[in-house]
Amino acid sequence: MRNRQLTLYIPALFGSDAWSGSDVSQGLSLTGLELLLSRGRRRQRKSQSADGLLFELFGHAAEVSGLPVAAVMSRFDLGEPADDFCFCATPVNMQPDRDRLVMIGSDHLAVTQAEACQLADEFNQLFAEDGLRLDVPVSNRWYLHSSSKPDISTQPFKSVIAQDVGHYLPVGKDAMQWHAILNEVQMLFYSSRVNEKRRQSGQPEINSFWLWGEGESPEPQANQWQHVWSNEPLSCALANLAQNALASMPASAEEWLEQSDHGGSHLLVFDALADAVVTHDIGRWRDMIEAVDEEWIEPLTLALKTKSISTIRLLSDNVEFEISRHSLKRWWKRSRPFALHK
After folding, report:
1. Is there a domain that residue 262 lies in?
2. Residues 6+ away with beta carbon under 8 Å from 191
3. How far is CA 118 from CA 53, 189, 201, in A?
4. Are residues 19 and 131 in the same domain?
5. From the CA atom positions of the chain, what is the Rg in Å?
6. pTM value?
7. Rounded Cα–Cα distance for residues 97 and 114 (Å)
8. What pLDDT band is residue 219 in, cutting at 50, 70 and 90?
9. How far apart are the C-alpha atoms of 198 and 292, rounded to whole Å?
10. Beta strand 85-97 pairing with 208-212
């Protein structure tokens, strides 16, 4: 189809600001990216979080008090809108480090659905009279429902990984009550048979959950996408809310070109680079960006030249590039090193 307009959303395309002390892209082979970025039209964007840009891409204005990730995600995972106030309650491992408690994260926990269900059952037995309910539709995506709307605000999960949780706890009128609830959760989970078995087998404990993403469920908004391609949960949930056509990400551009047999605007979401940044894994980020260049950017550049697609728009963090067949022909704009485009 010649009228396919393609938007590639690649959070953390340029790595992390925390890596600025060294040239992490040195020695990488990024021929396709360097060509597209050099010949595309660059536009600076307002800096915002990856989740914030996803909400914007699906027509939602950023909320002053935060993004209602939990309401959107729980609707997607549970198959129906939440009828009460909802938080994401991501299972985590927290470890003491001298005089602080550090949130290690959740990726390494490999929580099973059986473990999630047992911990949820124990939680719900203890907190049912408080109007709280924990749902675990996916082993690593949990939701805490409250029959009343608490006066607290929280911090996004990804911003707290490897940080001292004491600086990121809920704030607001009801904060102390919720600090107490989280302390009770830690004691409950510690004594659970789930964690007894984990300690015996040398696995890290699921010793708490992180509350975040609260807010009222947003109304579906019109957007430009004829088709959304993604394995990233929030983008899938937003596409589902908007009733966009949704499919999982193909393994390569060649597969996508075969599967996307209709025109219009297509959104593809790449989350591997962002995952590497969250876990501070520079080696993985380098591997992933070379794979994106080889398996996606180079074949898509060829498709642009042969008129299989009409435009490529590349988004990442606070910058975007738009490339057309016309701009691709600007041979006098020589490829510049990848790091210079940040």
Report:
1. yes
2. none
3. 35, 10, 18
4. no
5. 22
6. 0.92
7. 30
8. confident
9. 36
10. antiparallel
Q: 145 with 86: CB under 8 angstroms?
A: yes
Report the C-alpha gap between 317 and 315 in whole angstroms.
7
Question: Which range marks the domain in which residue 20 is found?
Answer: 4-60+222-341
Q: Say which DSSP state 192 is in.
A: S
Beta-carbon contacts of 320 under 8 Å, excluding residues fewer than 6 positions away, are 42, 43, 45, 313, 314
Check whether residue 38 and residue 171 sit in a common domain: no
- Bridge-based pairing of strands 132-138 and 100-105 is unpaired
Q: Which of 321, 323, 268, 279 is nearest to 9 (CA)?
A: 268
Output the CA–CA distances (angstroms, integers) from residue 331 to 40, 242, 335, in the order listed.
12, 40, 9
Write the pLDDT tens digit of every residue in 308-329: 999 999 999 889 999 998 888 8
Each residue of 89-111: pLDDT tens digit? 999 999 998 889 999 888 889 99
Structure tokens at 263: 């025109």
Which of 146-156 are b and which e, b meaning 16 or more Cβ less than 10 Å from the residue's Cβ?
Answer: beeebebebbb
